[in-house]
Amino acid sequence: MANFGDHLRELGALDRLASMDTPIHRLDPRAKVLATLLFILMVASFGRYEVSGLLPFALFPVILGTLGEVPWGLVGKRVLMVLPFALVLGILNPFLDRSQVAFGSWTLSAGWLSFASILLRFALCVGASVILIATTSMDGVCMALERLGLPRVFTLQIALLYRYVFVLLEETLRITRARELRANGRPLLLSEYGSLAGSLFLRTWERARRVHVAMLSRGFEGEFHGASPPHFRSKDAAFLMGWGAVLVVLRLVNLPHLLESLLKGVAS
Amino acid sequence: MHMADALLSPAVGATMWVLSGATLGRSATRVRKTLDEGRLPLMGVLGAFVFAVQMLNFAIPGTGSSGHLAGTLFLALLLGPHGAFLTVSSVLVVQALFFADGGLLALGCNLFNMGFFPAFVAYPLIVRPLLAGAPGQGRRALGIILGAVIGLQLGAFGVVLETILSGRTALPFKAFLYAMQPIHLAIGLVEGLATLALVAFLARTRPELLETQSRGRSAWKGALVVAVMALVAGGCFSWFASTRPDGLEWALAKVGQQEIEAPEQSLHGRIAHAQARTALMPDYAFKGGGESRGATSLAGVGGGVLTLLIVGGVGIALRPRRKMA
Description:
The structure holds two protein chains of two kinds.
Chain A: H1 2-18, H2 23-26, H3 29-45, H4 59-67, H5 72-90, H6 93-96, E1 100-103, E2 106-109, H7 110-135, H8 138-147, H9 152-183, H10 190-217, H11 234-252, H12 255-267
Antiparallel strand pairs in A: 1-2
Helix pairs in contact in A: 1-9, 3-7, 3-8, 3-11, 4-7, 5-7, 8-9
Chain B: H1 10-34, H2 40-53, E1 58-59, E2 66-67, H3 72-98, H4 107-131, H5 137-166, H6 173-205, H7 207-211, H8 220-242, H9 247-256, H10 261-278, H11 290-299, H12 301-318
Antiparallel strand pairs in B: 1-2
Helix pairs in contact in B: 1-3, 1-4, 2-3, 3-4, 4-5, 4-8, 5-6, 5-8, 6-8, 6-9
């Protein structure tokens, strides 16, 4: 149940963050969605042993998160939440992939490299996604997806789901709380689950019907009319192209290696 | 069983995006035709219901663990396959964005594994024929549990294939398969039982909600044959591996003897070849090229530290200062 409340609170926190007003928030959602997609694509395109080449990619979430004033605690929490999954899938690499890698006078099994690579990928991809949603409203994301060619029925479905998810989570929280107060610590059994989830469903269904009738009576014909359809300004294009160029360059040029050779050049 | 960005190669991620995108487009067209658009709010609220009910855990007796409903099959029973796919997809998109479950690149994989298989394979081939006519309690239970198990087995197999084809982990195909399929056999049973509990409740209280789906010819014997064949073909890994104490451990012991390596290598070699041709970035490092790649990667530790310092510096420099005002 704590889990439930946590989820609700975090959804709310992200929703509030998305309504802030920073240079990143003001960008067109399409530019942010596309830049984030390109970022993830570039990160994913690295070979399995790549570690150093991935490091400069931290620039993208760091800059967007800082300018968008996303609290780093929130990003860190999200990354930590998916970390167990990354650990489970990566931890066997050092044992399975035993080819040795020379590292100065040390040798290391190559599996450790691919393990570190997986952890880095997780952190980068999760970080970028969280920052995207913390700087872009859900309606904005839906608009972006629709303009990028997804069927309107689907983007509408996402928008509607998002509108009702808060209400329904609260409803579920009430139902589970009521059960827990009566159950005296007894866990929820499958035999009772049917009627619990079932009554949640029936309440949902009734609510959906009321909502449907209310929307129809207000002239709903399968479309939301946004207050101001945003324009893709030159600022947005510059953001997208600028990041596109930076990400491609970072993908092609290994910055840490470059810096390393610079360091050596200075030392000698 | 969310597939994650970090485990995917762009080629696999993009392929699955195309597949899921096509399914989504088709589903949207069908839904628009069959369900008038005014009914969309219903689907939206149902999506929110699935989102909420996924967090409602119940105890699994004798294990000390708990399970929850994923809901695709339940949605298929209410909305049909197209509506169910659309609704589950919207749930997965919101989860990917808000809870970083999976991720944007992995969205295509996740829609396919958790939406396509249950809604377009398990439901029409297994569940619908078995529930056609007026099913008794036994047949209904059989249909729903079988459908849930097969849907999840296929989904888990999808995760294994996508992970191996991407080549980001060193997990051998067989070991991963032996770990995933039995786990998802259990998850499938739980999913089936939970769906059944919900459907049984609705059949008692509001049978008319489910009636729309029980029309059609009763072809349940044919469906049973299909189901058994699918179980034998796809699920035999589960039965086989679940007789071992721990599929993954057992498989790892075998890997130690280098027995699995050989076929895996050749599979990998072929995939690497195919991927090198289709990939966005040609310079992939795969198993064979690991050493030199790894060596160059580690040599740059000094440079790496410097990079992180620069990134951190940029972050600090950009920090907004208006809190002073």
